[in-house]
């Protein structure tokens, strides 16, 4: 699998591929991110996963971020032995800071690639606070991975109640990555880690 960062000029490399998108600040990247990626790769039978290392999260204090180059470097090092995963700063290249804008740009630039946007259940719980959150599922399928204790909270979240096609997956399936579909993967023991907790120990 190509480890070079994807861009609009090499989109042909990803034609026909099933790609999971895990967005985040990765400040710092940790084993929880890696575990979620491995579960999604296996359960959704993906060809690859891209870590979208964000230039900045509109919902977080920008002063709390390490420089993008540092976060990208650390993420790439963590994925060095993962042939089907790569870390990219494509959001910075595209000039997008919000998920809706990023997905819209990726769908336009990689029109022959099947994407699924991945998130932990903690993000699913607060998904309704995201910019144009109700329109995001129309751009790509969503894959939500259980992450206690937010796993139980997300079951009553606005996203879970949204008029979408919701499917619970407990094993690997070759599902169609159709926009408007949420795949809930709550049957895997996931590590309870947070970047904010790790920063406190540094």
In short:
The protein is of the alpha/beta class. It has helices spanning 31-43, 68-78, 90-94, 99-109, 121-125, 150-154, 158-161, 195-201; strands spanning 18-24, 48-53, 85-88, 114-120, 141-145, 165-168, 181-185. The protein contains 8 helices and 7 strands; from the N terminus they run E-H-E-H-E-H-H-E-H-E-H-H-E-E-H.
Structure description:
- With 202 residues, this protein is of the alpha/beta class.
- The protein has one domain: HUPs (Rossmann fold, 3-Layer(aba) Sandwich).
- It has helices spanning 31-43, 68-78, 90-94, 99-109, 121-125, 150-154, 158-161, 195-201; strands at residues 18-24, 48-53, 85-88, 114-120, 141-145, 165-168, 181-185.
- It has a seven-stranded parallel sheet with strand order 3-2-1-4-5-7-6.
- Helix 1 links the parallel strand 1 (18-24) and strand 2.
- The longest helix is centred in the first third of the chain and has 13 residues, at 31-43.
- The model is unreliable at 194-202 (pLDDT under 50).
